[in-house]
């Protein structure tokens, strides 16, 4: 199978899984909902995860970034957490923790630091830390909570510095009446 075919198949699987994920993300966490959607989404992400594992080398050569792998794992963790919220079954919470811990240990988001073009990736990383922190709190993993709080705090501080120029530009362009003058003296 050619690299181009592998990359196109991967992108198609990502798009299909994302569409299914969007459907279940908006289902309320209470009451009886259409549970068959969750099974379809789990199946789509399982297929996607297996495909990227089997074709990792070709996908990396075609431009797959580490954070994209982390995003897939993070979505699977979110699905497990969503199932926990709907069913209160601790096994789903533990599965979510396992995926989040793997993302952290493998450093899937580590390569995204410092580049202005990856603001969206940094937001994904911040959301990952927030979700993992919540799961760790629910499981009473106090040592992991300490680690995550430190990393989250450091990441927020880094984002404040790295993306300050973008923040100022947006403030000036879309909110001109907001007090932006306070920052301009620090910038220039």
UniProtKB/TrEMBL annotation:
Organism name: Vitis vinifera
GO terms assigned for molecular function: transcription corepressor activity
Any matching Pfam family: SCAI
Gene Ontology BP annotations: DNA-templated transcription
Protein name, per record: Protein SCAI
InterPro entries linked: SCAI (IPR022709)
């Amino acid at each position: 199978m050619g690299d181009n075919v592998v990359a196109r198949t991967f992108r198609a699987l990502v798009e299909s899984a994302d569409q299914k994920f969007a459907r279940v993300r908006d289902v309320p966490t209470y009451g009886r909902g259409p549970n068959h959607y969750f099974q379809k989404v789990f199946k789509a992400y399982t297929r996607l995860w297996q495909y990227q594992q089997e074709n990792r080398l070709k996908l990396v050569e075609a431009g797959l970034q580490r954070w994209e792998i982390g995003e897939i794992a993070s979505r699977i963790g979110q699905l497990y957490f969503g199932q926990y919220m709907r069913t209160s079954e601790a096994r789903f919470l533990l599965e979510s923790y396992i995926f989040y811990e793997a993302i952290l240990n493998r450093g899937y988001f580590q390569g995204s630091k410092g580049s202005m073009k990856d603001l969206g990736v940094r937001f994904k990383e911040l959301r990952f830390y927030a979700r993992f922190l919540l799961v760790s709190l629910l499981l009473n993993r106090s040592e992991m909570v300490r680690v995550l709080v430190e990393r989250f705090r450091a990441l927020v501080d880094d984002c404040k510095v790295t993306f300050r120029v973008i923040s100022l530009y947006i403030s000036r362009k879309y909110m001109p009446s907001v007090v932006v003058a306070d920052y301009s003296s620090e910038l220039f």
